[in-house]
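DM from R.C. (forwarded with permission)

"hey, sorry to bug you on a friday — could you get me a structure for this? deadline for the figure draft is monday and I only need the backbone to look sensible"
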Amino acid sequence: MQQKILLVDDREDNLLSMEAILEPDGYQFIKATSGRHALKILLTEFDFALILMDVKMPNLSGFETAALIYEREKLRHIPIIFITANNYGEDNIFKGYRTGAVDYIYKPINPELLRAKVSVFIDLYQKNRRLLMQEQKLKAINKNLEDEISERKASEEKIKQLNRQLLGNITLLESANRDLDRFAFMASHDLQEPLRKIRTFGDLLATKYKDALDKDANAYIGRIQSAATRMQALIKDILAFSKLTGEKENFEFTDLNILLDEALVDLEASIKEKEAQVSLLEPLPALEVNPGLIRPLFFNLISNALKYSKPDVIPQITIRYELTTGHGNNTNNSNTNNKDNVGKYCRIFIEDNGIGFDQVYAEQVFEMFRRLHVSSAFEGTGIGLALCKKIVEKHHGFISAHSKANEGTTFIVTLPVYQPVKVIMKQ
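My reply, with the result:
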């Protein structure tokens, strides 16, 4: 980029002379024939690298013009070299320096000296411009950093505030859940006594006055007994679900085959009634579990398979397992019970050939009171699978279902071989 030089002299020949000397160096020249003319130019242009100015000019001398130039903030960076034909003495020289001059050149002008001095100041000007540009860039970067830090501090404060609100909401939610569980437990417990009386007196009516009542009356009594039975099952399941919240994590290394056998014994009547075939492909491993919870888990899942079997089709229920690293990647089926299994999971598959359901409902089946089929066609309270999910989550595991309408269902229970160790923080 061409550097601009302002030449100020009241004599045209002096202006032409300076221009001729400096022109080979490729500078751009703006010429002023008086101090006032120079000031007028500097009102609109201030990107000069240097001003070469005669000292002795009519109206405004070089010193006076320099003083007026440096009154403006935008012009103070422009160096001024005075051109003079006289030696005014040290006082006048100091006066020139005080007004802002950076050097003097005496007439007659030595071309080489002029070119050398102009070259030095042009070079300084270019370096200063680069420094100013760097400074502006640094200021812009600092400003951006300050803005970013301010935004980050504001975001951190907002996150802290949201965390405080979240912790408060969690505390309120936990308290509400405890209150709800206590209410469900107490309500279910208190409902059992009047329900027992309904069933007792219903049974008395059915046995003692069966022959004395007509067909409709006996049918009504049968409906009362059936409704009371369903109500009792519902209360039993609600109590089981409520108790599960407060259940302590009493984990012990347990052979799952024992728990499965106990669940099958409890379901023996249903299995015989439906002539179901329950197949365990190979013995299940031992895991660190709460036996009191895993037993009803097996009971509910197998009971569910029996309940939703196809009419006139023998229920086929298959149970198998595999060990995995993480909770999804298959590794092997070896039944090894040692500390090498820390961090491993056991995936238990319970497959049936029942009526199944559309896979879009795979998440909904674990919701409380959610039933995909008409309640009159299948008995149940709609709590069993919700209870299973809660039991599995108590064991830091996962449960999922894969199904297809009329093609059966597979429930997959994923449990850690060893329960994660709790880290107790010291106060």
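R.C.: lifesaver. Residues 4-109 form a domain with the Rossmann fold fold (CATH 3.40.50.2300).
me: no worries. The longest helix spans residues 111-208.
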